[in-house]
Amino acid sequence: GQSLEQPSEVTAVEGAIVQINCTYQTSGFYGLSWYQQHDGGAPTFLSYNALDGLEETGRFSSFLSRSDSYGYLLLQELQMKDSASYFCAVSTGANNLFFGTGTRLTVIP
Amino acid sequence: DTEVTQTPKHLVMGMTNKKSLKCEQHMGHRAMYWYKQKAKKPPELMFVYSYEKLSINESVPSRFSPECPNSSLLNLHLHALQPEDSALYLCASSQEGQLFYGYTFGSGTRLTVV
């Protein structure tokens, strides 16, 4: 099986930087992904890390440390529209994706 | 076309009914998935299809029966469901074995079992 833990809630100010952590335990590991989901919406893909290090995509960056079974999502220049739930997800094979507990991000003015 | 389309968007069914959820994509993705999501919980993987063949069944009760008629369509047949099966059912697709590009999710079918 697999387990992924994230903080349940995070609040940050518009324009600030926020980091959402994810620790995981799996049998087998292909990579760690991050998804955003607005209330009532579909999860949308943000990033994927298969190797250690930082991946940057615009205002979003994602980090992975395979030796520590740890990753994080970094959101910069926060905007009100970033208020959503964020899920880390681990793949233990080429065609599966298991989601973490989710972090609800609230951006305040 | 970069979308996954799910129908219906909402469904209310009785415990003795038979209904089907439908999912369609035209992105040429050869892997398709069903997830179940309860309120304020993460999506839970139910089934994985790879090249139209069922490759993963995450110990889902037999009252849920998936079907992949062709590379663009994925169905989920429902029969004798329980009220606890009420949830958002999400379909997703991806390029086969290409995790780097992520999954594309549909907006889901919100199912209520009465």
In summary, what is this structure?
Chain A is 0% helix and 59% strand. By secondary structure, chain A is mostly beta strands.
Q: Which regions of chain B have little confidence, pLDDT < 50, spanning 5+ residues?
A: none
Proportion of strand residues of chain B: over 45%
Average pLDDT value of chain B? Answer: 95
* Shape summary of chain A: globular
Mean pLDDT of chain A: 96
The tally of strands of chain B reads 11
What structural class is derived from the secondary structure elements of chain A? Answer: mainly beta
Strand runs of chain A, count: 11
Report Rg of chain B: 13 Å
Number of helices of chain A: 0
**Helix content, binned percent of chain B:** under 10%
Helix content of chain A: under 10%
Structural class of chain B: mainly beta
Largest interface: A-B, 23 and 28 residues
Question: How far apart are the first and last residues' alpha carbons of chain B, in Å?
Answer: 36 Å
Radius of gyration of chain A: 13 Å
Q: Give the amount of beta strand of chain A, in percent.
A: over 45%
Q: Mind summarizing the main beta sheet of chain A? A: 6 strands, mixed
What does this structure look like?
The complex is a heterodimer of chains A (109) and B (114). By secondary structure, chain A is mostly beta strands. In chain A, 0% of the residues lie in helices and 59% in strands. Chain A contains no helices and 11 strands. Chain A has strands spanning 2-5, 9-13, 18-26, 31-37, 44-49, 53-57, 60-65, 70-75, 84-91, 98-99, 103-108. In chain A, the strands form 2 sheets. In chain A, strands 2, 4, 5, 9, 10 and 11 form a 6-stranded mixed β-sheet that branches. In chain A, strands 1-3-8-7-6 form a 5-stranded antiparallel β-sheet, with no helix packed on it. In chain A, a hairpin with a 6-residue loop joins β9 (84-91) and β10. Chain A starts with a strand and ends with a strand. The model of chain A has no long low-confidence stretch (mean pLDDT 96). Chain B is mainly β and 114 residues long. Chain B contains no helices and 11 strands. In chain B, the strands form 2 sheets. In chain B, strands 2, 4, 5, 6, 9, 10 and 11 form a 7-stranded mixed β-sheet that branches. In chain B, a hairpin with a 6-residue loop joins β4 (31-37) and β5. Chain B is globular. The mean pLDDT of chain B is 95.
